[in-house]
């Protein structure tokens, strides 16, 4: 059975909502993050902060302000993954944490 575009979008938004509510999978406790359509990464805190923009851009193709969600993923082993909005280092399930500070500096 094929999923309609509307069902796929609703599933994506439901996954984002679930990640905002619980940023770790259950019961394994793997850390979640969001991938936007432009291949940027978003932490669950920033997804909560910008949820209305995420819904608008994901539901309606006429809006293209950069908040359209592609998927919600688990960060298994990449300790150098950062949120492109707030620059917070995204937790990884098995990767060693970076030896630097948790936030990277913004490029100027």
Describe this structure in words.
With 108 residues, the chain is an alpha+beta fold. It has one domain (1-108). 30% of the residues lie in helices and 12% in strands. The chain contains 3 helices and 3 strands; from the N terminus they run αββααβ. It has helices spanning 5-21, 44-49, 51-59, and strands spanning 32-36, 41-42, 69-74. It has a 3-stranded antiparallel sheet with strand order 2-1-3. A hairpin with a 4-residue loop joins strand 1 (32-36) and strand 2 (41-42). Helix 1 runs antiparallel to helix 3 (51-59). The longest helix is centred in the N-terminal third of the chain and has 17 residues, at 5-21. The N and C termini lie far apart (49 Å). The mean pLDDT is 89.
Number of discrete domains: 1
The shape, in one word, is globular
Largest sheet: spatial strand order? 2-1-3
Number of strands: 3
Could you give a short account of the major beta sheet? Answer: 3 strands, antiparallel
Distance between the termini: 49 Å
Number of continuous helical runs: 3
Q: Kindly state the mean pLDDT as a whole number?
A: 89
Query: What structural class results from the helix and strand content?
Result: alpha+beta
SSE string: HEEHHE
Strand content: 5-15%
Query: Low-confidence runs (pLDDT<50, min 5 residues)?
Result: none
Radius of gyration: 14 Å
Fraction in helix: 25-40%
């Amino acid at each position: 059975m094929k999923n309609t575009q509307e069902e796929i979008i609703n599933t994506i938004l439901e996954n984002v909502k679930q990640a905002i509510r619980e940023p770790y999978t259950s019961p394994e406790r793997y850390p979640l993050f969001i991938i936007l359509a432009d291949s940027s990464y978003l932490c669950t805190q920033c997804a909560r902060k910008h949820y209305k923009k995420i819904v608008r851009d994901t539901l309606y193709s006429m809006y293209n302000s950069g908040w359209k969600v592609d998927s919600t993923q688990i960060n298994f082993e990449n300790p150098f993954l950062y949120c492109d909005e707030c620059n917070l280092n995204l937790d990884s399930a098995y990767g060693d944490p970076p030896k630097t500070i948790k936030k990277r500096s913004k490029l100027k």
